[in-house]
Amino acid sequence: MRRARIQKFQTRMRQLRKELRAKETAEQLAADRTKIIERLDALTSDDSASKDIDFFRIDVGGGDEAKETHRTLSTAEMLAERKPQAWLFPNLLTKNEPAVIVGPSKTLKSSLAVDLCAALATGGKFLGEFAAEKVFRVGFVGADNKQSQLADLAVRWSAAREENPTLDNLQWFMAVEEPAAPENLESLQKWIEKFELEVVVIDPLKLGSTNKRKQAEAIRTLVKTISKAGATPILCVQTRKEMKPSKLDASILAGSLDFAQQWLLVNRREAFESGSGKHKLWLSIGGYAGQGGEWGVDIDEGKLTDEGGRRWNVTLREATEIEAAAKQAKEDVKFEKLESQLRRVLIDAGESGLCKYNIRSNSGMSGSKFGPTWDRMMTAGKIVEMPKDPHSTLKRYTLPPENEKNETERSSRRVRCADHEPAQQA
């Protein structure tokens, strides 16, 4: 009898616990339902918000908001969601996609970043060539100890333009510590939201950790924070090692910078001559939107001692033009040496001159070098044909009178043209 009563009591307790759990579940579902209705009401009452939000995630199971792991779309749905490409600078930088400006130390990354920000903030031209799509609200995050340098760059940029524009749409955030530090991200986000910034440039990108994995995580968090606040992030990043003057390619982005959807790669084209104020750079751009190109950037900053002080004069040149000019200069140097050899041979010959065969023979040149050099000098009038000698069938050549006078270098040899040389060699 006693055992039966115990069993009945245990059965009743199990039933009560089951009913209590069901009641708690019902109350939780009711609370979740109320929360969902409030969120839907808020979204539908805000027209601007409903336009910007394509879909949202809800949680009917209580606790933290559930995260979607994937979406499934038909081709038609995917094409329907496709949006026109928005640009900061047409065919150069897109809007809402993270970008980087990468290069070794002392390659004017900060200067280029100020030029870019100023162009966006005024609707002007980046490097005097790439026009901004419109006027944007721009923010520049810089190191506190570079404030004077940045202000000088901004003044010189405006002074270099005829209209001398003001930079009212450019806000500055002078950071003492690294902006990617967790304690600074909230301040950065509030600053972006306060001024409703559309583009944020960070220079230089400073990271506290030297661990590559932690660096990558910090950069991604920083980019996500800026994007979440509604701005396009552009980060200035210094390469880990110095590089010889040359073009850079996108392979340099591998690793912690592979988040970048677009990039500006800058390096020196020629070593900087201290005190000249003149810089020759390579600029390579690329991005997932299909933009790409290479240019030479010539920047003349002048000197402090110049009248009016330093300046900001920029000239952009096509990479192909620069490479062709460099190739031509190299060819000119090569031919100058070869031409000098022929001039010495003709000087040694004196007033009697030499026939073409003996000029080549005494120069010691191969046919592949002599032929092009001879043609260049004859076309340029650097070698002239002498009056025909009635006693010889061979044509003789000499230097023009002015070349003969200006040439001071002579060898001790004397050469003559032999009478038995075949006429076809003339």
TrEMBL record:
Region entry Disordered, spans: 387-426
Taxonomic superkingdom: Bacteria
Ranges annotated as biased composition (Basic and acidic residues): 402-426
Pfam families with a match to the protein in the record: AAA_25
Protein name, entry field: Uncharacterized protein
